[in-house]
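Possible regression after last week's pipeline update?

I re-ran a chain I had predicted before the update to compare outputs. Posting the input and the new output here so someone can diff against the archived version. Not blocking, just want to make sure nothing changed silently.
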Amino acid sequence: MTVGQMDSLRVVFLGTPAFALPSLYAIAQATTVVGVVTQPDRPSGRGRAQVAPPVAVAARELGLRLLQPESLKSAESLAELTALRPDLLVTVAYGRLVPGAVLALPPMGCINLHPSLLPEYRGASPIQRAIADGTASTGVTVMHLAEELDAGDIILQRRVAIGPEETAGELEARLALEGAVLLLEAVGRIARGEAQRRAQDHARTTYAGKLSKADGAIQWTRPAQVLVNLVRAMNPWPCAYTTWRGGVLKVWQARLADGQGPPGQVLEAGEAGITVAAGEGAVALVEVQPEGGRRMSAAAFARGHRMAAGDRLG
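New output (post-update):
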């Protein structure tokens, strides 16, 4: 396939958050993106002002046609997509299932980039769940879309190591870049008629459901390593948290520490930081944020709030 042929490939791109941006830029540079589909603007922040998704902002900057339907199931949405005459649909973190009528539109099919090694961690939070589980690696998968969630045939996969202190936000940024490279390779193979299909082993399927704020709750009876992994996994959202003196205390960064005691008991609080007993071992809080306050070092928090050994969290 020549570069000219690649340029002439008509693609509709579907995506919503910042994770999709490297893929959108790569696809827009290599093919002819005839339309970008993203979710509608949503109210955000204390003022509840309407905020456009990152993909919508990027599409406007690139001068691409933008569609923001409430649903792809409507006759109007189907008609708009049909009029674009796409050869291929590419989805990256669009956030909604694509109906069968849309999947049937492009002659070259519909593909999706997912940040896990499918069939592991199907669903909305694969990055966070992989870190919370303490896995040493994860990856990215390009697959054919199916009406069942993340269950389509695999085209390409790439394994990516997880750093021992890496947060979900840091890993997501790396996987977004790795995924864009893999996605572009898959699109090239599809255009040349060289893309192979491999069915997923559904018996190995695991799921990573949508996160809620409750997922960040620290249960001090759990082992210290599990809690440190949780803090990494919940950074930046929803952020791990505990309670102290009736208020919420967010924990942005933590590491393993020596010590033992009743779960949740503060073992040390001072210039060296805050050490808290867990079900097995202890956790050193490195960066925290009190309710209504700013992020700060654990040492600064202990100093300013007169936390002392023997206090209880949770």
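Follow-up from reviewer: compared with the archived run. The chain has a mean pLDDT of 95. Marking as no regression found.
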